[in-house]
Design brief:
InterPro entries: AA/rel_permease1, AminoAcid_Transporter. It is found in: Membrane. The chain crosses the membrane at residues 12-34, 49-71, 92-118, 149-168, 180-203, 223-248, 260-283, 314-341, 389-409, 421-444, 450-467. By secondary structure, the chain is mainly α. It is 70% helix and 0% strand.
Length: 481
């Protein structure tokens, strides 16, 4: 069998519980905390329902975290769900997850968060753009690569710069995320305090629905579709919590610290989201928030802050969004290459991704591959199209991991579990049922995004059969070497 080159480095356990908690929170708090209140308001047209959607999305995410943390603690290693699925299901399902993470979930997340950074920069300093005739060019009637072209180019630049940052070491990237997160969380709580004290808002805003609001029963199919569309937007804001599992091999005492970081991190984020969105809806009537959705490069949080702090406040929140999305993009880029590295070691990804840089001890080639594909996704469409597509795909595998709690308790009943799923079996069952509902309703309500996601998942099948054949051939040939 071929030997690994002597110049190969190795992954090192350097991250403690607080670092893992920080990476969980910074993987989650990104663009959604500032932007998603607008599309949610446009779907539901009621401030009360918007807040309920944030709470429901947070509780469902927490159910998933409480369940999946048991699997993370039991099978902690670099690669996250890829490692879990090899043990729970089989090689093919593990590959399907890894390929979907590469083509849809993580790469689209990187593209989406970096895109909001570029939009915020554009609000401060307008970037050049192409003519309207170029902007309207479409590929296959779906993709609009030249629309908002200047913002997209800036997005790609950010991805490349931060990919290099992660290329040269995880500790530097983790330190950057930690510093940015402290500033961001402090600033968000400052906005909450100022908005609730000098924002000029009113509790009456919560009893005043949009002028277009029509009362519907919760069993009305149109209400269910609208509520799940709003949840899809909220889930984007909560997306990213599982990424900490990708760096399990670089966390100290991962069987204890990884599940703790996941549960504590998601709980903290939920509190932050409910408070900040309550503030938005307290300061502005819902119709004004809905109006901010109509402009391509307008962000709801900027509209709210400008209302009570003027242009100076708008500048402050724009800079804060730049910081937040900068830090979240950095953290989102950090974890997935460890997954691709784990896949490549198993012969189920591009061979070069199994290389660890001898100086920086990072999966350097996997980082480059991710940067290239994420950059291509930037030109594929709009922010909301990307996020809806990735949430649809992500919940297929979130549900599969939670189902794994039941399977592993059958397969490995005597294995030591540093953490056992709280509320078992009720909480895991609730999460699995919700995943099934979200997948079904997305297929019905947003078929384009769902079908694009499924097509990208299916695109991995030829690669799987090619890599699997080569792996089997190597196994057969190895005794003769």
């Amino acid at each position: 069998m071929s030997q690994q080159p002597k110049s190969q480095g190795k992954l090192i356990q350097t991250l403690g519980l607080f670092s893992a908690f920080t990476l969980t929170v910074s993987s989650v708090i990104g663009s959604g905390v500032y932007k998603k209140v607008a599309p949610m308001s446009a779907e539901l047209l009621s401030p009360d329902l918007v807040l309920i959607a944030w709470v429901v999305a947070g509780l469902i995410t927490l159910c998933g975290t409480l369940s999946n943390a048991e699997v993370a603690g039991l099978l902690a290693d670099s690669g996250g769900e890829f490692v879990y699925f090899r043990k729970i299901y089989n090689k093919f399902f593990a590959f399907l997850f890894g390929w979907t993470t590469f083509t849809v979930i993580r790469s689209a997340a990187v593209a989406s968060i970096a895109y909001i950074f570029a939009q915020s920069f554009n609000a401060l300093i307008p970037v050049p753009t192409l003519s309207e005739s170029w902007a309207q060019v479409t590929l296959l009637g779906v993709f609009t690569p030249f629309d908002n072209f200047g913002v997209k180019c800036l997005t790609v630049l950010l991805i490349l710069v931060l990919s290099y940052n992660n290329y040269i070491g995880i500790k530097f990237g983790e330190g950057l995320s930690k510093g940015v997160l402290i500033i961001v969380v402090a600033s968000i709580f400052l906005i909450i305090v100022l908005g609730l004290t000098i924002g000029g808002g009113s509790l009456e805003n919560f009893s005043t629905s949009s002028t277009h609001y029509v009362s519907r029963s919760i069993t009305d199919p149109s209400f269910i579709t609208s509520f799940f569309a709003a949840l899809l937007a909220a889930f984007w804001a909560y997306e990213g919590w599982s990424a900490t599992g990708y760096i399990g091999g670089e966390i100290k005492n991962p069987k204890r610290n990884l599940p703790l970081a996941l549960v504590l991190g998601v709980s903290f984020v939920m509190v932050v989201y409910v408070l900040i969105n309550f503030t938005y809806l307290y300061v502005l009537p819902i119709d004004e928030i809905v109006n901010s959705q109509k402009s391509q490069n307008t962000i709801a949080a900027i509209t709210v802050i400008r209302h009570f702090l003027g242009s100076g406040g708008a500048l402050f929140i724009s800079i804060l969004i730049l910081l937040t999305t900068f830090g979240c993009t950095n953290t989102t880029l950090l974890g997935p290459p460890r997954l691709y590295y784990a896949m490549a070691k198993e012969g189920m990804f591009f061979k070069s991704a199994s290389y660890i840089h001898p100086k920086y001890n990072t999966p350097s080639n996997a980082i480059v591959i991710q940067a290239v594909w994420s950059s291509l996704l930037v030109f594929s469409g709009s922010f909301d199209q990307l996020t809806d597509m990735l949430i649809f795909a992500a919940f297929i595998f979130y549900g599969a991991t939670t189902l794994g709690v039941f399977i592993l308790r059958k397969k490995m009943p005597d294995a030591h579990r540093p953490y056992k799923a709280w509320g078992y079996p009720v909480v895991p069952v609730i999460f699995i049922l919700f995943c099934l509902a979200l997948i079904t309703i997305t297929l019905i309500g947003k078929p384009r995004e769902a079908l694009i996601g499924l097509a990208l998942m299916a695109s991995g099948l030829p690669f799987y059969f090619y890599w699997n054949r080569n792996s089997l051939r190597s196994t057969v040939d190895s005794p003769r070497q």
